[in-house]
């Protein structure tokens, strides 16, 4: 990961074997005491043991992933507001094993998806949306402001006069996040003793191979496909618990991105 993101001109900082408290302290320093105005994107890779919604430090204590990502929300880290914040999390999210399901292979004709939407249809949809929007009578009142998620007194507290609301942009505090997990909630994330984790290996491979203008969502989708094709068998200490069964793994992505994110060398 260090080499991959270094090749995209990221300023990379590698930290190993941190306790839960040290992880928290490092991320809080990065979010609250670092100026990101000159940077376009933040990427954080967390590789450790974990469980549902939490990740462990080397001391055995765990941290809430939600609390860690909240350090970088727009209100907590203004210099990253409106910029993509990408988290890649290699950790188990439970103790279960993902079992496969057998389906019949289908011909290309039945599996291909055809996009029949024409440019004219796109224009018609846009016109419909514009027409619907213009027919609405939108007025901002005190009660409306509370309903849509912010308070007028907060705007005043931040020295934004009401008559200047048209000159500022309001964004959701949790906008522009992407969380890419090695596995879905409740299940283990597999690791090869010699080759490393299958998710990280597939992610690095795809980032290196990435096509020009390929978005991060395209990349993680390709990673999902690559990881899902592989069969796994638990190593020695757990082999008896699974009766030698083969199982699979599928990563998961959750995001609130508002723009297409591409990496360029």
UniProtKB/TrEMBL annotation:
SMART domains: CASc. The keyword Hydrolase applies. GO terms for molecular function: cysteine-type endopeptidase activity. Residues 1-96 form the Caspase family p20 domain. GO terms for cellular component: cytoplasm. Residues 167-265 form the Caspase family p10 domain. The keyword Mitochondrion does not apply. GO terms for biological process: apoptotic process; protein maturation; proteolysis; regulation of programmed cell death. It comes from the Eukaryota. Keywords: Apoptosis, Hydrolase, Protease, Thiol protease, Zymogen. Pfam families: Peptidase_C14 (PF00656). Belongs to the peptidase C14A family. PANTHER family: CASPASE 10, DED DOMAIN-CONTAINING PROTEIN. This is CASPASE_P20 domain-containing protein.
